[in-house]
C-alpha cells in the first residue's frame, strides 16, 4: 500500500495537492508530506521485520518495546486510512498498479526468484533439522520397543511438518520458474518494432519551471519542446456544460517509457524538462535477452538452492554421527562399569 501511494503521489503530486485542496480548502504541499511519510514508514517497517527475522533465526525471544507497538499500530491505521482515501477519491488511479506491473513484471520475477534463494537457507536448515530429529528418534526407538507406537506417531508428525514446509516452497518456486510464460510487457519487444518517441503536451504549460496556467509557463513549455499545450477553463458546473475531464498526467520516466513502448503518440505532462532528456525507453529489452536472463536466473538459482540443501543436509548428518558415536561410547562405559561391579 505504501509503495503504491509512493508511485501514484510521485507521478501526480500536483493533482494530489489539488484534490486535497478541494477537500480541505487549504493549499499545502501535501504531496511532499505524504511522500516523506510513506518513505519513512516503509523503511521503518522493513527494518523492523528484518531485525525480527534475525532474532527469530538466532532463537532469541522477540520482545517489542511499547513505542514500537504504538508505531506498528500507527502504520496499520495509516494504511487503512490511505486505502479508504484511495478507494473513495482516487479509485480510478488503481490503474497505475496494473500499468506498473506491465513494466516491472520481468524484474519482479527476477527479484522473487532471488528472494526464494535467500529463503531457502532457513527452510533447508529447518527441513534438515527435522530429518535429523526423525533419524535420532528412530535410533532411540530400537532400544525401547515398548514405546514404538507412540514414537511412530511422533515420526509421522515430523514427516508431515517436512511436507507442509517444503512442498509449498517447491510449488511456489516452480510457479516462479514458469511465470515468464504468462508475463506480458510492452517493453519486451524487438528494437525495430519500437515506435517513435511520444510528443509532449504541456499540462497547464510547464509548471516545473513557471507558474501554471500563465503565459510564462506556456512559453517555457514551448522552449522545452512541447508539441501542444493544455490549459484549464473554470466553469461553475461542468456537467451542465456537458464537459468531461478525463486526463491522465505522465510525469515519471517509467510511465513515459511504458507509453513509448506501447506506441502512444503523445502524453500530457508537467515534467517536460525531465522527459525530454529521455532518448530511449527505460526497462526496454528484447525477447531474446529476457529469455537469456530468465534461463540464467532459473539455472543459477536452482544450483544455489540445491547446494544450500546439500550443505544443511550434510551438516545434520555429521551431527547425527557424532550423536551416535557419543551414545555408543556412553553405552560402552556403562557396560564396563556394570561388569566391574
From TrEMBL:
Annotated GP-PDE domain residues: 198-341
Entry GO MF terms: hydrolase activity
Keyword annotations from UniProtKB, A to Z: Glycoprotein, Hydrolase, Membrane, Transmembrane, Transmembrane helix
Lineage, uppermost ranks: Eukaryota, Metazoa, Chordata, Craniata, Vertebrata
Compartment(s): Membrane
GO annotations of cellular component type: membrane
Organism of origin: Daubentonia madagascariensis
Protein name listed in UniProt: Glycerophosphodiester phosphodiesterase domain-containing protein 4
Transmembrane segments: 27-57, 69-91, 103-128, 158-179, 289-311
Homology family: Belongs to the glycerophosphoryl diester phosphodiesterase family.
Pfam families in UniProt: GDPD (PF03009)
Membrane topology: Multi-pass membrane protein
Cross-referenced PANTHER family: GLYCEROPHOSPHODIESTER PHOSPHODIESTERASE DOMAIN-CONTAINING PROTEIN 4, GLYCEROPHOSPHORYL DIESTER PHOSPHODIESTERASE
Amino acid at each position: 500500500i505504501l509503495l503504491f501511494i509512493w508511485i501514484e503521489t510521485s507521478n501526480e503530486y500536483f493533482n494530489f495537492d489539488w484534490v486535497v485542496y478541494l477537500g480541505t480548502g487549504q493549499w499545502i504541499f501535501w504531496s511532499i508530506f505524504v511522500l516523506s511519510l510513506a518513505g519513512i514508514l516503509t523503511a521503518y517497517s522493513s527494518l523492523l521485520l528484518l531485525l525480527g527475522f534475525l532474532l527469530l533465526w538466532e532463537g532469541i525471544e522477540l520482545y517489542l518495546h511499547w513505542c514500537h507497538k504504538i508505531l506498528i499500530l500507527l502504520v496499520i491505521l495509516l494504511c487503512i486510512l490511505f486505502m479508504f482515501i484511495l478507494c473513495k477519491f482516487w479509485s480510478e488511479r488503481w490503474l497505475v498498479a496494473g500499468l506498473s506491473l506491465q513494466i516491472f513484471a520481468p524484474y519482479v520475477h527476477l527479484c522473487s526468484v532471488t528472494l526464494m534463494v535467500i529463503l531457502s537457507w532457513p527452510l533447508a536448515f529447518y527441513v534438515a533439522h527435522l530429518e535429523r530429529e526423525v533419524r535420532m528418534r528412530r535410533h532411540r526407538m530400537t532400544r525401547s520397543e515398548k514405546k514404538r507406537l507412540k514414537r511412530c506417531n511422533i515420526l509421522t508428525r515430523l514427516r508431515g511438518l517436512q511436507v507442509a514446509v517444503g512442498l509449498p516452497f517447491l510449488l511456489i518456486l516452480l510457479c516462479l520458474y514458469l511465470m515468464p510464460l504468462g508475463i506480458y510487457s510492452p517493453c519486451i519487444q524487438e528494437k525495430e518494432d519500437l515506435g517513435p518517441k511520444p510528443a509532449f503536451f504541456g499540462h497547464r504549460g510547464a509548471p516545473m519551471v513557471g507558474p501554471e496556467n500563465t503565459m510564462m509557463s506556456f512559453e517555457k513549455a514551448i522552449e522545452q519542446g512541447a508539441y501542444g499545450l493544455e490549459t484549464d477553463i473554470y466553469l461553475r458546473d461542468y456537467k451542465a456544460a456537458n464537459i468531461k475531464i478525463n486526463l491522465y498526467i505522465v510525469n515519471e520516466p517509467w510511465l513515459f517509457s511504458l507509453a513509448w513502448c506501447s506506441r502512444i503518440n503523445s502524453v500530457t505532462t508537467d515534467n517536460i524538462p525531465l522527459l525530454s532528456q529521455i532518448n530511449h525507453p527505460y526497462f526496454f529489452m528484447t525477447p531474446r535477452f529476457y529469455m537469456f536472463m530468465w534461463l540464467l536466473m532459473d539455472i543459477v538459482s536452482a544450483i544455489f538452492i540445491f547446494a544450500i540443501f546439500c550443505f544443511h543436509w550434510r551438516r545434520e548428518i555429521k551431527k547425527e554421527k557424532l550423536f551416535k558415536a557419543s551414545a555408543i561410547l556412553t553405552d560402552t562405559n556403562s557396560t564396563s562399569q556394570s561388569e566391574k561391579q
